[in-house]
Amino acid sequence: MKIKNLRYYIGFLLMLGIAINYLDRMALPLVKEKLTQIGIDDKAFGDIMAIQSLVYALSFIPTGMLVDRFGTRRGYSFLILWWSIAAALHAFARTKFQFATLRGFLAFGEAGAWPAGTRATAEWFPPHERSTAVGFWNAGSSIGSIIASFLILNVLLRIMDWRWMFIATASLGLLWLLAWLVIYRKPSEHPWITDSEREYIGKQVGGSEGAVEEHWDGAPAKFRELFRHRQTWAICLYRVLMDQTWWFYVTWMPGYFQEQLKVPGVGKGGLYAIPFMFAFVGGVFGGWLAAQLIKRGWSTTRARKTVICVSCAMMSVGFLIPQFNSAYTASVLIGIAVFAYTAASSNLLTIPADVAPRRFVATLNGISGLAGGICGVVMNLKVGAWIKEYKLYDQAFMAEAFVPLIAIVVILTVLGRVRPLGMAE
Q1: Hey, is 3 helix, strand or coil?
Q2: How far apart are CA 10 and CA 13, in angstroms?
Q3: Beta bridge partner(s), residue 193
Q4: Alpha-carbon 372 to chain mean position
Q5: Which of 80, 202, 214, 257 would you label with 422, given CA atoms 20 to 30 Å apart?
Q6: Residues 187-230: pLDDT tens digits?
Q7: What does the pLDDT average to over 323-330?
Q8: Are 118 and 361 in contact (CB under 8 A)?
C-alpha cells in the first residue's frame, strides 16, 4: 500500500498527540474548584503547578536527548505511555503531595512531545514546509484545550465522578500510542511512502538521514557546541520570556473566569474554549504565513523574524483585559493574545530544525524548553500567592502583556541569521 503525501498524515498524527497532551494537562486546572473539597486552596494549587512547571522544565533536555538517542518512534512511544499512566493515577490522589508528585511524573513525559515533534518535522518535512508543519501540530495544544473544556466540563463531569475523569482522558493516550506504532517510520524506512515523496524529502533535507550531521565546518557535531552560537541563546531567552506567558493563560484562566468574573463552573466551558479557538488559528496561520513569505523570495531569517515580532506586538492587547468586566469580552481579548502567541511559536519552534544538526534538533528544543520552563515555575508560585492574598488577576494580566515587547528586542538583537549553525556569518 502506498499513500500520497504521507508526510501530511504524519503531521496530523503529531497534532493529535499534542492535543492529547493538553487534554491530560488541562484536566486538573479544569477541576480546580473541586480540589477545595480536599483542602487544596489557591496557594496550594499554585505550589502543585509550580512543581509541574519545574519538572517540566528539567525534563526537556533529558527527554530531548532520549528522543535523539533512541529515535523519534521509540522515544515518543515511551513518553506518551509514561504520561498516560501518570494522568490515570491522578484518580487515586488524595493530598497536595500526591497531586504534586503525579503532576511531576506527568510533566516529565509531556515535556518530550515537543522535542519529538520537532525531530519528526526535521525527518519528514523540507525546510520551507517546516513552519507550516510545526504550526499545524503545535496547534494541537489549542485543540486539546478546546476539547478539554467541552469534554470535561460539559460531558465527563456530568456522567462520572471527577476522579474517574482522569482515567477516561488518559485512555486516549494509549489509543494514540497504538496508532503511532503502526504508522510512524522514518521516510527511508516507511513501506507506505511513494518513491516520489521519498525522493522529494531526501533532496530537500539533504539526502539520507545522516546527511545533516556536518553543519560545523565539516567536523562531527558535538552537543556542547550548540552553546557557541547566538541562535541557541536567542531561542532560550525568548522562551524564558514567552513560555510562562502561555502557561499563565492556560493554568489560571479557569480560575479567572470563576473567581473574578463569577462564571459558574460548567458554564465557563464555552468561554474557556474561545481563546483556544483563536490559538489554533494563530498557530496554523503563523506557520503558513512564514512559508508563503519564503516562497515569495523572503529569506528564512526575514520571514521568521517578521512573523514573530509582529505577533509579539499583537500580544500587548493583554493590557486591555483588566479594563472589562464582561466575560465574553475578556475571552475574546485573551483569544487575540494567544492567537499572536501561537503564530509566533510556530516559527520559533521551527528554528531548531532550521539550524541544528539533525541528531541535536530535539536536544536544542529541550535546552530552550528548560529555559522557558524555569520561568514558568516562578510565575506559578508568584501568581498563586498573589491571588490567594488579593483575589485579583489584573496586575498579572498587565505584566504578561508587557513581556512580549521585551521578546521583540531579543529576536531583533540576539537571534542573528536563521541558518545552519557553524556556517560563516
Answers
A1: strand
A2: 5
A3: 3
A4: 11
A5: 202
A6: 989 999 999 998 888 766 544 333 344 444 444 456 677 888 88
A7: 84
A8: yes
Neighbours of 222 (CB within 10 A): 11
- Residue 1 C-alpha cell reads as 500500500
Q: Grid coordinates representing 264? A: 459558574
Say how far apart CA 101 and CA 98 lie, in whole Å.
5
Residue with cell 538521514: 209
pLDDT digits (tens, 9 = 90+) for 255-289: 788 777 777 654 455 677 788 889 889 988 998 99
Cell numbers standing for residue 311: 505577533
> Got the DSSP string for 306-355?
HHHHHHHHHGGGGGGGGG---HHHHHHHHHHHHHHHHHHHHHHTTHHHHH
> pTM of the entire structure?
0.75
* Residue that the C-alpha cell 484545550 belongs to: 145
Per residue in 62-72, pLDDT tens?
998 899 889 99
Grid cell, residue 169, equals 482522558
Retrieve residue 124's grid coordinates. Answer: 519528514
